[in-house]
Amino acid sequence: MRGENDATVVEERLRELDARLRGPRRLKSDLLTEARHGLLDAVDAYREDGLPATEAQRRAVAEFGSPAQLAPAYQAELAAGALRGLSLRVVAVATVAFVAGDLTWRGASWTGPPPPATYQLLSASVGWIWAAAFVLAALGLVLAGRSARRGGVPDRALGTALTGVLALGVLAGSALFWWSIGLWDAALTWPPMIIGVVVAGAGYLWLGRAARTWLHAAR
Asked: How far is the C-alpha of 196 from the C-alpha of 191, rounded, in Å?
């Protein structure tokens, strides 16, 4: 039976490992919990063999490995999880953007001359940027799954490209919104436009947090 101080050495080793890891909090917590259970099971096995508690912990920890030895494998799994999380969010946001994008303008009450050709090009570019993000995210899901199974590091170039495309999409989308307001004053009071801006803003923040987690995990 485990005593009050049975896990002292174990917890110290886990704290050292924790300090070396960066990535999604939930996944990181799950990995450390799994490691804790494995270490404590090893401690129990050594104690059943007659070793004192402290010596049992030391042997279990030594057998487990040092933080420097363990961190790369754990970090690779965290990076794969971060890329998978970012990719899932991109797929979700891009899908909503494709489905709801036209609804923002449908039935608009204002009229006027056609917008400039540059505006039309920017509008089309926003769609192409999100299409590219969707494709990269789909590839990211495939690569993250393979990396997790093989214990390797997911493609950093792909994750970086996806993050860059997202940044470009946010800039282009924001520019299109402000340009729309400049062309049509009524756009600022059009309910579908207001709802679209709120949803897009929330989506951008949601994606931004995931992108930040990916960048930290992949460093």
From this structure: 8
Q: Which residue has the tokens 């487990």?
A: 64
DSSP state of 160: H
Residue 29 falls inside a structural domain? yes
Return d(Cα 40, Cα 123) in angstroms, integer.
58
- Assigned domain for 3 exists: no
First to last CA, the chain: 41
Q: Distance (Å, rounded) from C-alpha 159 to C-alpha 106?
A: 35
- DSSP helix/strand/coil, 28: helix
C-beta of residue 58 within 8 angstroms of C-beta of residue 9? yes
Asked if 44 and 90 sit in the same domain, the reply is no
How many separate helices (H) and strands (E) can be counted in the chain? Answer: 7, 0
pLDDT beneath 70, residues of the chain: 1-7, 101-112, 145-154
pLDDT tens digit sequence for 139-185: 988 887 666 555 555 578 888 999 999 999 999 988 988 888 888 77
